[in-house]
Amino acid sequence: MKVELKTLEELENFGLKIGNALKGNELIGLKGPLGAGKTTLTKYIAKALKIKEDIISPTFNIIKVYDSIKGPLYHIDCYRLENLGYDPILDDYIFDENAIRIIEWYNYLDDEGLFKDAIKIEIIVKENNVRELIIEGDLCID
Question: What pTM was computed for the model?
Answer without folding.
Answer: 0.93
